[in-house]
Amino acid sequence: MTNKMNKSKHAYTVIKDRILDGTYAPGQRIILDQIAKEVGSSHIPVREAIRHLEADRLIEYRQNAGALVLSIDEKVYKQTLEMLAVLEGYATMLSLDYMNEEDIQQLTDINNEMKNALEEYDLKTFSELNKKFHFAIYSHCPNKLLYSNIKQSWEKLDTVRSAGFAYFPMRAPDSVKEHNQLIDLLRNPPTKDAVESFARQHKFNTLTAYENRK
């Protein structure tokens, strides 16, 4: 049983990673035989992995078509950003009491790396550093369920976000500036509500940039 669970988990990780890094494109069919051979298992653990990915809303099983990678349409993308604005604002506020100067300096260092990536127009690295910046904050959130929900939502959007700044690169310089402002607020918060409000608006600004990208 344990071996079967390990193979199912391995298959789950392989497929999920390929969806999130764009190797498997939206609408692409997942070939169970191929995955089973790669992970050295029968179809049963792979089917179990597919069921978990369906629950994660990364895959959809269709009659006569099999397991297909789900695409994230514009409506879902925008609604997810709206939800994240609320969740991330609150998580940032909750993290405030658990961050010290060393943690805040880490944010400054990451944001400086983002600035350098932007100057080199390395948008892939910029996007990766942006995620690193925010989760360096959320990692201090005492509400682990909240943290988990944020992490899952980011993962579902990673294929979109990985190319997101290519769609609206004009957002990137403002993002760096807002990060500097957020760092100042975390270092010297006027009120906790002010921190939450700014972090929430920061995410809404990304949504606005997405809507105005065309």
TrEMBL record:
Which superkingdom, per the lineage?
Bacteria
Q: Which UniProt keywords apply?
A: DNA-binding, Transcription, Transcription regulation
> Which Pfam family, an example, fits this chain?
GntR
| A molecular function (GO) term | DNA binding
InterPro entries for this protein: GntR_C, TF_FadR/GntR_C, Tscrpt_reg_HTH_GntR, WH-like_DNA-bd_sf, WH_DNA-bd_sf
**CDD domains in alphabetical order:** WHTH_GntR
| Domain HTH gntR-type, chain residue ranges per copy | 5-72
Which protein are we looking at? GntR family transcriptional regulator
